[in-house]
């Protein structure tokens, strides 16, 4: 097995490094994890992280199937992905911006309103429709991975990328949902919700107007 990996060592190292930087770079996924962890608790943050990690496999699947090349050369397909992603971010951002609560008890109840399934779906959809992730996979599977790369190795690459996202965003969720931090966030929750909502809508507008 090790002998079979040696010819692709440079590819593996490149995938690992790029995956780490891709996961930790600020973007819609990070803001969504922040939103769910602060406003809905650790469980919501972790399930959102799981949704993001599993959504990675959608990108892996179309890349392995060769659709990455089709998408990269089709303005229409890429535009559909881009505008759907932008619309979703603006929608979630607007909902966050409009959130209203009047006391701490209502806020605590609000933390329980997002089920684990809903949190998972938010993470999954955010990443699946994230043009940034699409561009990332287009670059990997059209420039780094070549036609001679075995299918089993491409699947390993997908696992590396997915794991990097799961570990990073799970760590972010755990950190942001610490009781001491949540107590501080709770003191400024209205302002934070407004700011997070504006940031998400800003990402949506940026995605929609991007020429990349």
How would you sum up this structure, described in words?
The chain has twelve helices and no strands. By secondary structure, the protein is mainly α. Helix 2 packs antiparallel against helix 9, helix 3 runs antiparallel to helix 12 and helix 4 crosses helix 9. It is globular, with a radius of gyration of 18 Å.
> Which bin fits the share of residues in helices?
over 70%
Content-based structural category:
mainly alpha
The Cα radius of gyration reads 18 Å
Count every beta strand, where a strand is a DSSP E run of 2 or more residues: 0
Order of helices and strands: HHHHHHHHHHHH
Major sheet details: none
Rough outline: globular
Flag low-confidence runs: 102-111
End-to-end gap: 39 Å
Strand content: under 5%
Concise synopsis of the structure shown:
With 212 residues, the chain is mainly α. It contains twelve helices and no strands.
List the helices and strands and how they pair.
Elements: H1 2-5, H2 9-24, H3 28-40, H4 42-64, H5 67-72, H6 75-98, H7 104-111, H8 116-128, H9 131-144, H10 151-176, H11 179-187, H12 189-209
Helix pairs in contact: 2-9, 2-10, 3-4, 3-8, 3-10, 3-12, 4-8, 4-9, 4-10, 6-12
């Amino acid at each position: 097995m090790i002998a079979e990996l040696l010819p692709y060592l440079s590819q593996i190292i490149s995938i690992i490094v790029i995956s780490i930087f891709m996961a930790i770079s600020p973007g819609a996924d990070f803001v969504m994890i922040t939103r769910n962890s602060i406003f809905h608790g650790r469980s919501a943050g972790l399930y959102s992280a799981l949704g993001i990690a599993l959504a990675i496999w959608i990108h892996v699947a179309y890349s392995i199937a060769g659709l990455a090349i089709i998408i990269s050369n089709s303005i229409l397909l890429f535009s559909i992905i881009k505008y759907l992603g932008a619309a979703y971010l603006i929608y979630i951002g607007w909902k966050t911006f409009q959130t209203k609560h009047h006391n701490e008890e209502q806020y605590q109840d609000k933390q329980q309103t997002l089920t684990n399934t809903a949190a998972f779906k938010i993470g999954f959809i955010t990443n699946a429709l994230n043009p940034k992730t699409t561009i990332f996979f287009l670059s990997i599977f059209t420039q780094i991975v070549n036609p001679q790369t075995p299918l089993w190795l491409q699947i390993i690459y997908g696992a590396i990328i997915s794991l990097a996202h799961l570990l990073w965003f799970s760590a972010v969720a755990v950190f942001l949902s610490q009781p001491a931090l949540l107590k501080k966030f709770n003191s400024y929750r209205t302002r934070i919700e407004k700011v997070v909502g504006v940031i998400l809508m800003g990402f949506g507008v940026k995605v929609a107007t991007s020429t990349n």
